[in-house]
TrEMBL record:
Shown part of the complete sequence: 1 to 305 of 436
Name of the protein in its database record: TAR DNA-binding protein 43-like
Biased composition (Basic and acidic residues): 280-293
Transmembrane segments: none
Compartments (UniProt record): Nucleus
Residue intervals of the RRM domain: 108-186, 194-265
Record key words, sorted: mRNA processing, mRNA splicing, Nucleus, Repeat, RNA-binding, Transcription, Transcription regulation
Segment forming the signal sequence: none
Residue ranges, annotated region (Disordered): 261-305
Taxonomic placement: Eukaryota, Metazoa, Ecdysozoa, Scalidophora, Priapulida
Amino acid sequence: MAQYIQIAEEENEEPIEVPTEDDGTLLLSTLCAQFPGSSGLKYRNPETGTVRGVRLLDGRFHSSEGLWGNLVYVVVFPKDNKRKMDDGLENSLAKTKRLESKYRTTPSDLIVLGLPWKSNEEDTKQYFEQFGEVVLCQIKKDFKTGQSKGYGFVRFADMEGQNKVLSQRHCIEGRWCEVRIPNSREPNYPIALRKLFVGRLTEDVSAEDLRTYFSKFDEVTDVFVPKPFRGFAFVTMVHPEVAAKLIDEDHIIKGISVHVSSAEPKQKDKERFGGGGGRGRFDDHRGGWHDGHQGGGMGGGQGQN
DNA sequence: GTTGAGCGTT
């Protein structure tokens, strides 16, 4: 009968339970469904403290004694993380997901949800032009009455405009609107819930190091290190729930123990830390796109190409 | 004349 194995993406992360087959093996395809792009499994031997790999034969993982036990297994991704886009190891789901965000390099139509009924195409276009050259702006209307359906499409000439517009919320003529990649069920969450404050930083840790480190947990949309160096940085993740799990933890990056907290400190934290200098951390830098946007120079991070 | 999640008459 099937059992459930606890599998996590990182050793110290919350595992999810994945079912085995009736014969007690775990299908690689089952693993890939939960961890797109994964290629293996490992676990820490409780007795020796060393990490062991799990045997993989013909697309099936086999536990050592036919029992998976209560261990938390950790996903392994291909070593050459600089995987080619059409690497056979990546299934189509993973490809689709990546294409939707990280590896997208040309602008696409973006759907704008929640427009005010009264908004017209001219004013809406004007609003979006603050982010870059707008090459398309349309509002969907009832073809009979001409009444707006409250949503439309916008397209930018380049990725810079697109990235900027996707990385923040929008207030158009008094209403909060959402801009998304069409059909991607991924809303873009409020930046305040995705942005991490990385404190106790030293200059040995570069923006690229930060991006590489935090990319292990989720896609990183932005890394900001104040110049001149001030001992902290901001890292913005795609998913608020991932960001939440990283907050209030110490992380070792290049041997340096840094402390991660929310970029938008709660009142009590303001009293504990910030305070002295006057304004809070969140005010110390403008939201927006700093590096690593897909447009120009391909910021640090994992493997592209 | 109202409304508020959705996915586009070319």
